[in-house]
Design brief:
Organism: candidate division WOR-3 bacterium
Mean pLDDT: 95
InterPro entries: 6-PGluconate_DH-like_C_sf (IPR008927), D-isomer_DH_CS1 (IPR029752), DUF2520 (IPR018931), NAD(P)-bd_dom_sf (IPR036291), P5C_Rdtase_cat_N (IPR028939), TM1727-like_C_sf (IPR037108)
Protein name: DUF2520 domain-containing protein
Order of helices and strands: EHEHEEHEHEHEHEHHHHHHH
Domain DUF2520: 147-242
Largest sheet: 8 strands, mixed
Domain Pyrroline-5-carboxylate reductase catalytic N-terminal: 8-83
Helix content: 40-55%
Number of helices: 13
CATH class of the largest domain: Alpha Beta
Radius of gyration: 22 Å
Number of domains: 2
Length: 263
Amino acid sequence: MAENIRKKIAIIGLGRVGSSLARLLVENGIEFIGGFSSTVESSVKAIKKIQAGRVLSIEELKDADAVFVCVQDRNIEKIAKKISFQDFAFENMTFIHCSGSYGLDVLSPISEKGGEIAVFHPLFPFIDFEFSLANIRGAYVGVEGPEWLYSLAKRLGLVPFSLPKNRGKYHLGAVLSSGLLLSLLSYPEEIAKELGIPVEAYLKLAENAIKGAMNFSIMDSITGPWKRGDDEVIKKHLENCSDPILYSRLLRRIREVLRENKH
């Protein structure tokens, strides 16, 4: 049975991440009291979409037990400094940022005032509000902070794990698994358009390759001419590739992986 989490939660930054998180809180019985974004107009629009809470001023954050900071990475420290100037009972509040590339230190202006600080980084592509709510359950979330945050993650249907100290390398792994992976898929998209075949055919292949990696391992799920030693096929690829240098680098990488993991 999920732990009963009695927290009043506010959110700074009601964009794609913040608004999705707010609605997820509401749908799972957690009290979302409100929040704000960069403008009143965007704040009102977000609250209407979330269907809960109200637009708050920075002073009204004092009514929350926990405040999630869901702003762009470069703005987290600025927000932390603004918060630190407020007349809050900091010792009774937790402030949580949702960046994967920063540690606790970016919230140090708040901790210096006695506030508890934490990190809650969902490994999920917040592409769209409705898409996020429909697909986020089962996603992993990196956590650094009090035990109740781990319980909250489970309550929201997420899988929590403790964040490593090296955030630069951790976040590199995240973008290689999402944005940069999709940039590679833009190549088969170009090929599909050129040949007049459905791009979904290639995307489904990618989806099933990832399913294979999750069910077995990345190594065991690698298929293709590099595994069969079919150099003639690779030669044809290079003749038709719009970026043969990138292909050659990826080929070198996959051969290294196969060689290092040879049974």
